From TrEMBL, chains A, B:
The entry's keywords: Aminotransferase, Pyridoxal phosphate, Transferase
GO molecular function: L-aspartate:2-oxoglutarate aminotransferase activity; pyridoxal phosphate binding
The name this protein goes by in its record: Aspartate aminotransferase
Principal EC category: transferase
Upper classification of the organism: Bacteria, Candidatus Falkowiibacteriota
Source organism per UniProt: Candidatus Falkowbacteria bacterium CG10_big_fil_rev_8_21_14_0_10_43_10
Cofactor(s) listed: pyridoxal 5'-phosphate
Length: 402, 402
């Protein structure tokens, strides 16, 4: 039997999805599992979305143009104008969700063997995209105890070598909920320019912030040449099943190359491009509403975590996640316990062990990520159950093994 | 300004899409351009498709599971049973069109620097996927004069080296319309087994055939371990804008790896997965109807080409393309002439120069691909205009340059 590739063997398993079998088993036993592990919003997309899709009246469903359906790309242009960005249609290419945007941006600027700096903890799928495209991720560690602050410039620069092609940032951050301040962005842009490398800025959660105004790295004039934004409609319009994102950059060479990659795979789904035109054209009212909702949820989770003995966390400023350091040796073991050895009135909670959000071995082993993807009432219940689970886990021997 | 990657620079431009500006200019001058260049069907998808999408009643649009929505993957299982294949749901992973299926299959079995044998001429996007994934395509040349027949086994084997990870076939073939006979497939499987490499079989056009029964390489028992089918709903259900395809293989190791890649990009569009359930569950009536339609169109094109002096072509057995060798030195120059220097009663025709369907330098320079994507009436008109254009081109000096 022929062997698969090394990258096929090494591709990591999503930490978010690998506990699914235990969830299903728990549910079979009649346990209700509050799932605050996946970033899968429970909120309906903008009211315009489904009607816009239903408005499609053509009898045939041809390929969309590779640079996007004209009205759709124009709607992204309009959307970005809301942040003072003067992107032209040619500076934007719709993608199959933020996921493809990331893969195309990486592929356009890096060859197999090249490297990117990335701040850990980070959205774990980046590991998969790196494996697929043959590039290496070099971690720069941020610490919850240190408020996930930018480390000294010297430390960042020391990780750059001749194979480094860019710095990847996620802003607002998944999984920490951290926002990069404009001055932090300016520091990173300065480093990128000095080393003649790119910044790939993942701004999927741009408007889901709990203070200040939404920010894009493209607002920094000095980022014009070096920044590539990877974006997604999934979270800000609560439509992850639509699989629509985009790449946006003023760097014409990068965009030309990304367009050629996009032509190779032909097009992005037609109906969802149409469905998102009204939402993109008038994003503010909807995104403000959901940001307010996520802020309330953030408060519920934060307040509950603060009351749990031994838990360390910081206040997320955006996105809908929080990293919590738990008073356990091994968060993965705790998560397994919650799914297999615990229930409270037939209820339990699924959170994501954070170890896989790191590259550096050993980091994040006692941390979990919580996603605010339930309504306030359920989230309160889930946090109570989590507290009870943590207490029960402590009553057991630390050596509890699944 | 930072430089993009070598692969970003080297990624080839789709031959199908690069003449688009000339088409637009011709249309501005009031010329009607009959487009028989792109494989974009003018036929409506199965009657069940749009109603199935409109039947979606949930208020939210979450990620679909990475292995596909249960009903959707089950519909693919049912679909393949129609060919006697006993694939289980775990042997099938829905993808974003055939395009992503190809990329995932290549990535799962080959590392950067590895090689695939591919029969030229072939669907040019494979070049893009190879560049993206860092693999090399080694051409085995098929010739129109030779009826695109399989070359001697020795010739094929001589191209296999220690970096070769597989053989790519497209069956029925785009752009030749050729079918691989079962005995040809058996030969290729034998070679793959002897060298312990994979066969990636692109069966996008499986049912669009003009003789015999639809075939999958998975019907060959000895292909069980080494064959990976990349498939697409786009052509057989006339819905390229839906972006739904799949990877199917009995090789569990390959499928495990492809699932992990699929998890990285989370999911395939929810609505289109639902839209295709009825079509996949009862494919026969629709695919038989469109195969009959494409056969009629094939006859129109073939008969017209046969009457054109100096044109060499063969009878396509499937798909909806034909490669025609024209009595010109440079088909690209001829295509430019048709768009810029010719019209017949304000009409002209756009075909695809075939050179980019080859890797070997110089091949295909006098060939074009014609796609049967117009109705009979329009196709007849288009072929008349093509004949007139060819005659006009000959009246001009051979040295006509754009």
């Amino acid at each position: 039997m022929p062997k698969i590739s090394r990258r096929g063997q090494n591709i990591f398993s999503s930490p978010i999805r690998k506990f699914l079998p235990l969830v299903l088993e728990a549910e079979k036993r009649g346990i209700k599992v509050f799932k605050i592990n996946v970033g899968d919003p429970d909120i309906a997309p903008p009211a315009s979305f489904f009607p816009a899709i239903r408005s499609y009246q053509k009898k045939i469903l041809p390929y969309a143009p590779s640079p996007g359906i004209k009205e759709h790309t124009a709607a992204w242009v309009k959307y970005y104008r809301g942040f003072g960005l003067k992107l032209k249609p040619a500076d934007i290419i719709p993608t199959m969700g933020g996921a493809e945007a990331i893969l195309l941006a990486i592929t356009a600027v890096a060859d197999p063997g090249d490297e990117f700096l990335i701040f850990e903890p980070f959205y774990a799928s980046y590991k998969g995209f790196a494996t697929m495209s043959g590039v290496k991720l070099t971690p720069v560690t941020l610490k919850v105890e240190n408020n996930f602050a930018l480390p000294p410039i010297k430390e960042i620069k020391s990780k750059i070598n001749r194979r480094t092609r860019g710095i990847i940032i996620i802003n607002p951050n998944n999984p920490t909920g951290m926002l990069w301040a404009k001055k932090d962005l300016a520091v990173l842009v300065k480093i990128a320019r000095e080393h003649n490398i790119f910044i790939i800025s993942d701004e999927t959660y741009r408007e889901i912030i709990f203070q200040g105004k939404p920010v894009s790295i493209l607002q920094l004039p000095r980022a014009k040449d070096c920044a590539i934004v990877v974006d997604s409609a999934s979270k800000r319009f609560s439509c992850p099943g639509a699989r629509i994102g985009c790449v946006a950059s003023y760097n014409k060479e990068a965009m030309r190359s990304i367009l050629k990659f996009a032509m190779t795979r032909l097009s992005v789904p037609t109906l969802e491009q149409i469905g998102l035109v009204p939402a993109l054209s008038n994003a503010g009212p909807y995104t403000k509403k959901i940001a307010a909702e996520y802020k309330k949820r953030r408060d519920v989770v934060l307040n509950a975590l603060k009351k749990m003995p031994g838990v360390v966390c910081r206040e997320p400023q955006g996105a809908f996640y929080i990293i919590a350091k738990l008073p356990v040796k091994n968060a993965e073991d705790f998560v397994k316990f919650m799914l297999t050895g615990f229930n409270y009135n037939k209820n339990t909670v699924m959170v994501t062990p954070a170890e896989d959000f790191y590259i550096t071995k050993g980091l994040g082993r006692d941390e979990v990520r919580i996603a605010f993807v339930l309504n306030i009432k359920e989230l309160k219940e889930a946090m109570e159950i989590l507290a009870k689970g943590l207490a029960a886990y402590h009553r057991k021997s630390d050596s509890y093994k699944f």
